[in-house]
Each structure stands twice: as C-alpha cells, then as structure tokens.
C-alpha cells in the first residue's frame, strides 16, 4: 500500500485556494472560504438580501484554487458582473456583483493554504486529492454529531457511500441504515412508504405497516435523489424533521422517531427552489452541512488509490501497479462521465484479466467497443477511432432498448441526462 501512498502524499499534501471578501452595504466584510455562501431572499441563506428582485436562493460563492467561484442558482433576474450575466465564473479581481436591485462588492484575497490533513480514507471511501482529504476531515468531524447532511455530486461520485460512512462513524452505527430512493416512490403509496399506515387505511392495506422513518429509528435514513421528492410530501417531511414524530396514514396518533438524515441529490436544487419545485425551508433544514463531491475528472490523483482499493477487494492486490498504468495511460483523456462507478467497473475487469498486451486489448473495449484499431496509426488516433465506434454503437443500442427515453438511458448508462443528450447529438441520434 505504502509505495503508492507515499508517492501521492509527496505530491499533494497542500491545497491552496484563493478566497475573497464579500462587501455587503451596512455589514462587516464577509470572508469567502471553501464552504459555499448562499445569497438570497430566503431567511435561511448565509447572506439574506431584503430585495424583491432577488430570488429565494439567488447565487453562491466559494473559494477554489484560482479564485472565488460565483454560481447563479437559477435565479429569476440573473447574477451580473460588469454588465455580463454570469451563470458560473471565477472571480479573481475586485468587482461589483449585481443581484436584483442590490450591488455587492468583491475583493480577492491572497492564496492561502487549506488544512486538509493526511487522511486518505474515511470508512470505505478512499482518495488522496486535497479536496477529498479535506472532505474526509470534515466528515470525520461531522459524523459523530446529529447534523443532517446534504451530499451533492454527479452520478457515481460516491454520495451513497458517504451516507454509509457517516452512519458507520456515528453513535448510531449499531442502529439501522435505511435507504429511500425519492425518485422511485410510487405516488399513491408515497406517504405510507415514508411514515407507515394503519390496517384498512386504504384499499390493499391489509395490515399495519411501518414506514422508512420508523424503520430507521435510532439509526440513519438516506434520502437518495431528494430533489425528486414529490411536492405534496415536502411539507410533511419538513414537519417530521422539525417535530421528530410521525403519523401513519389512517392514524391520528404521533409516534416519536429518532432519526438522522443524510440526503443526496444530483439535481440543481437551487433552480428547483427558485421555480418552486423544491421548498427552500426543507432544503436548509436538511443541508445543515453540505458535502459536494467533485467529479472524478477533476481529481485524477484519486485514480491510483481507488484502483488499489478495487484490486484489494477482488483479491488481486498485486495487479495494482499494472492496472493503474493501464488506466492512466489509455484513459488519460477520458472524462469519466460515470465517475468512480465507471472507474471501479473498468478496474475490476482489468484486474481480473491476465497481465500483458493482450489483456490490455481486452480491457480497451470498455472504452473502444471491441473495435481496437490495429497498431498501424498513432496510438492516440487508433484510440480515437475505437472510442468513437464504441460510443456510436453503445448509444444506438441504448436508444433502441429504451425507445429513446432519455431518463431511462441515463439510468441504464449510469450518467447524467445532459451527458446522454450530448452523446446523442454527437452521433445524430434522436431521443423521444
Ligand atoms: N471515494 C470512493 N472510494 C471508494 N469507492 C468509491 C468512492 N466513491 C465512489 N465509490 C464507488 O463507486 C460506486 C458508486 O458510488 P455511489 O453509489 O455511492 O455513487 P452515487 O454518487 O450515490 O451514485 P448515483 O448518483 O448514481 O446514485 C460504488 O461502487 C462505490 O463503492
């Protein structure tokens, strides 16, 4: 283990970010660090602006390596810097930020070092990049508390694994860990699935049943795809979180529940809040702590420890250096739309195959669709052709198998819908 770790540790012990100061008229300057500051009209925002032209959750700011990331959260009237409407941009020089009728000042600060610690894992999670080490440190601090956590990130970045790891590092670890996928709650049964029902409460309710919240009593409930929670359930969930008691469908009595909530979303909840699809009070109640998992393409230094973990898990630890070499050389330009899940799949196959050139060719089809071009042209060109052939065939088959349903394609491919759409466009395929 240590040869790999020593190498990565020597490379990246430090994380430097460039923050700044936000100047809000009539208030003390606010320091912008790596945790996001949300600006908006909602009273739960970090900076509350009493301005009718400002959206409930308007935009957010946080420090990154090159400067402060300013991100509009789908506001109605937009976020402007120097007369330019900004959806997302990095601020590196003094400027004014216009939101609604309000003008805020921004001043950059010098780069500073963020304490990231040396932890290269947290329970089942591994990673040696500064951002992941910083997250592991935060998670270690927050896990033993009862704070609820919102984990965001693209598909396959490890959101559910974070929830499990938090549960395992909390005083609730001996209690249940219950997963509820909010995207697949069938409408009529939704309330009963969450809070249970009495016998005879509705047709088919032949016996009294507990819901996910009662099942998670003294443990943790993981609300996956929180952004998909049906609107009619949102006030009910909010009440349960505030009052810590639930009422079964068909009952008038409340039962106390002691549950810690960890939720995850791939969706931009800022936009959902501003369009009224998701309640901001529920968001802030759940997002007492926010954990944002970066996509794998932005933390490629995590590939070696992740591959190592895979090789160990399948009982082939000695294959680690080979598989790391294979992936870092042949997939150097690949942006891993399926993130760690995709890497785990590729690494498991690669590690299970025998060593050597033939094995490499057998692994490449994961990227290249089996059409590994003969070694007559430059490697990069051969790879480009093979990858193109694979993508085209993969997405053509996917369109056929799902009848062109983009959500279904995204689910099956394990990637975001916008990635699916981009591939369809690239190969002239049409969705429904
Ligand atoms: N940091 C990590 N260390 C080790 N394994 C990881 C890490 N991150 C993700 N994985 C692995 O990647 C796979 C996907 O992780 P997970 O299901 O937690 O992702 P997710 O973000 O919840 O995905 P989705 O949004 O599609 O539900 C799992 O096999 C998980 O074990």
Automatic annotation (TrEMBL):
Q: Which SUPFAM superfamilies match?
A: Homeodomain-like, P-loop containing nucleoside triphosphate hydrolases, SMAD/FHA domain
Which keywords has UniProt assigned to this entry? ATP-binding, Nucleotide-binding, Transcription, Transcription regulation
Q: Which GO terms describe its biological process?
A: regulation of DNA-templated transcription
Domain named FHA: residues? 37-86
| Segments forming domain Sigma-54 factor interaction | 125-352
Q: Which Pfam families match?
A: AAA_lid_14, FHA, Sigma54_activat
Question: What GO molecular-function term can you cite, just one?
Answer: ATP binding
For this protein, the record's InterPro entries field holds:
AAA+_ATPase (IPR003593), AAA_lid_NorR (IPR058031), FHA_dom (IPR000253), Homeodomain-like_sf (IPR009057), P-loop_NTPase (IPR027417), Sigma_54_int (IPR002078), Sigma_54_int_dom_ATP-bd_1 (IPR025662), Sigma_54_int_dom_CS (IPR025944)
- From which domain of life does this come? Bacteria
Name of the protein described by the UniProt record? Response regulator of zinc sigma-54-dependent two-component system
Q: Which organism is it from?
A: Chondromyces apiculatus DSM 436
Higher taxonomy: Bacteria, Pseudomonadati, Myxococcota, Polyangia, Polyangiales
